[in-house]
Amino acid sequence: MRIGLDIAAMAFKRQVDQVILISGDSDFVPAAKLARREGIDFILDPLGANIRPDLVEHIDGLQTVLNRLRPKK
User: What is the mean pLDDT of residues 27-46?
Assistant: First the structure.
């Protein structure tokens, strides 16, 4: 809940232009929706996890760095 409140506060105060959330939890739908309504670019990195369609609907981009973090064999 605290992360969602921080996203909302930063969006309302226009402290950021972009939020990159590393999570796939659909509990962040309200925070993502609010940030986008305030004009904030909202990027999600679920670290390769499946995410629910209701969260996908409220983001501007989906990106993962998981494959770049794994050592090459």
Answer: 95
